[in-house]
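Re: that backbone. Tokens:
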């Protein structure tokens, strides 16, 4: 998928860009930045789904989705997305998304989830980064955000990996936020991105 992002930049004649990615999007951003570092002005990673550093962790993450995917494939689509939303955002997700997303967001999630379940999640197995391959390849400023609500061990592991891979990374925690931190605490995410630009890149 990083090839699509690069292709779009080439098509639009964008030589360098500030790249932001959430979850699997963070993985794509890291891949593009490591292969074509000259394309990147800065890198902002919101809970990046880094999985390939450990085969056991990789499979555990994928297996977590299997009951939801099975439910979705068996026709219980609304129920499957309801479980996913409660896990990613919280039990009050309907109230949260109503304030920040279009009114038909849940219906769009139900309709589009097949691509996520059967294309994006399996693609996580193709992650091939290792510590030695990635370290020092990316020299641009990097901002990493992690939600602290119900923080899992894997989130802390990923943060430690980023510290090793990219020592210049600015690590920040978003209060009252699960994996979907840009939805549950939008103002704080925007504030920290703005602060990052002001302090690290001086573009504002």
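Recovered sequence:
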């Amino acid at each position: 998928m990083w090839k699509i992002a690069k292709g779009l930049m080439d098509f639009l004649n964008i030589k360098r860009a500030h790249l932001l990615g959430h979850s699997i999007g963070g993985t794509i951003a890291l891949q593009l930045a490591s292969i074509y570092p000259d394309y990147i002005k800065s890198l902002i990673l919101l809970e990046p789904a880094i999985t390939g550093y450990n085969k056991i962790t990789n499979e555990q993450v994928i297996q977590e989705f299997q009951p939801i995917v099975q439910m979705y494939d068996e026709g219980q689509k609304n129920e499957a997305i309801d479980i996913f939303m409660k896990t990613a955002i919280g039990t009050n997700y309907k109230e949260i998304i109503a304030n920040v997303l279009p009114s038909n967001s849940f219906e769009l999630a139900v309709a589009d989830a097949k691509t996520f379940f059967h294309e994006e999640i399996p693609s996580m197995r193709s992650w091939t980064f290792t510590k030695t391959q990635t370290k020092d390849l990316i020299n641009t400023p990097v901002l990493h955000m992690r939600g602290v609500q119900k923080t899992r061990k894997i989130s802390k592991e990923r943060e430690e990996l980023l510290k090793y891979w990219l020592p210049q990374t600015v690590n920040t925690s978003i209060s009252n936020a699960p994996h979907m931190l840009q939805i549950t605490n939008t103002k704080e995410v925007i504030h920290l991105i703005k602060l990052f630009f002001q302090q690290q890149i001086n573009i504002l």
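The chain has a mean pLDDT of 83. Residues 106 and 112 are 10 Å apart (CA to CA).
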